[in-house]
């Protein structure tokens, strides 16, 4: 199985929205309010607007398994207000909207996307990969811990929004990428 990461284009927006709707339904069926309007998540129209701006800025990526879209990730230097300090933002890349298509769950696609974020951080000489996770989704917290992240803290009451669990991992803890495609997009080969 080959996992590749490519820059997303505007034509990928419907795919990314479909992944969000698919994953939200899956989470809801498991009892989570993550990404639901009831749980203070962004409605799909607001989400699409945010992703569209990230697409325009070249901050969104598509993971492909053997050439088929399998997930998405956005990586930039911004975060919701009052989550990370200005110095934490200055020394890190921030992961947003990481979603794996359910058809590819369990195949480490998310790990490859996180490694891509670390590759981007290293290229920018930023020593940290940071992200915020839905505060009540402890299964997601465990996923990030298994991926080598540590919980930095739960953001205080001044922070708005439902994603206040702040995770981080040093950029240097990922192995260097062995191969790249044009545009420095890493490709990793996995064996089933």
Task: Give a verbal description of the structure.
- The protein has helices at residues 13-29, 44-56, 86-90, 109-123, 138-146, and strands at residues 2-7, 60-65, 68-76, 92-100, 128-133, 150-154, 165-170, 180-181, 185-189.
- It starts with a strand and ends with a strand.
- Helix 1 (13-29) crosses helix 2.
- Helix 4 links the parallel strand 4 (92-100) and strand 5 (128-133).
- A 9-stranded mixed beta sheet has the order 6-7-5-4-3-2-1-9-8.
- The chain is 31% helix and 28% strand.
- The chain has 5 helices and 9 strands; from the N terminus they run E-H-H-E-E-H-E-H-E-H-E-E-E-E.
- It has one domain (2-182): Aminopeptidase (3-Layer(aba) Sandwich).
- By secondary structure, the protein is an alpha+beta fold.
- Mean pLDDT is 91; it is low at 179-192.
What's a quick, concise take on this entry?
The chain has helices at residues 13-29, 44-56, 86-90, 109-123, 138-146, and strands at 2-7, 60-65, 68-76, 92-100, 128-133, 150-154, 165-170, 180-181, 185-189.
**What is the annotated CATH architecture?**
3-Layer(aba) Sandwich
Q: So what's the overall shape?
A: globular
User: What's the name of the CATH homologous superfamily?
Assistant: Gcn5-related N-acetyltransferase (GNAT)
The total of helices stands at 5
């Amino acid at each position: 199985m080959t996992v590749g990461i490519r820059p997303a284009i505007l034509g990928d927006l419907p795919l990314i929205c479909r992944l969000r709707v698919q994953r939200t339904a899956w989470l809801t069926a498991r009892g989570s309010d993550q990404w639901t309007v009831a749980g203070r998540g962004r409605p799909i129209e607001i989400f699409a607007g945010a992703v569209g701006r990230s697409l325009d800025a070249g901050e969104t990526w598509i993971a492909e398994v053997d050439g088929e879209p399998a997930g998405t990730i956005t990586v930039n230097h911004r975060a919701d207000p009052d989550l990370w300090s200005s110095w934490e933002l200055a020394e890190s890349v921030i992961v947003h909207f990481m979603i794996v298509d359910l058809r590819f769950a369990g195949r480490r696609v998310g790990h490859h996307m996180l490694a891509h974020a670390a590759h981007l951080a290293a290229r920018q000489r930023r020593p940290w990969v940071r992200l915020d996770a839905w505060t009540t989704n402890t299964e997601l917290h465990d996923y990030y811990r298994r991926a080598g992240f540590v919980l930095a803290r739960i953001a205080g009451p001044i922070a708005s929004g439902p994603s206040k669990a702040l995770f981080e991992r040093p950029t240097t803890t990922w192995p260097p990428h062995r191969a790249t495609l044009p545009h420095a997009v890493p490709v990793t080969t996995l064996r089933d």
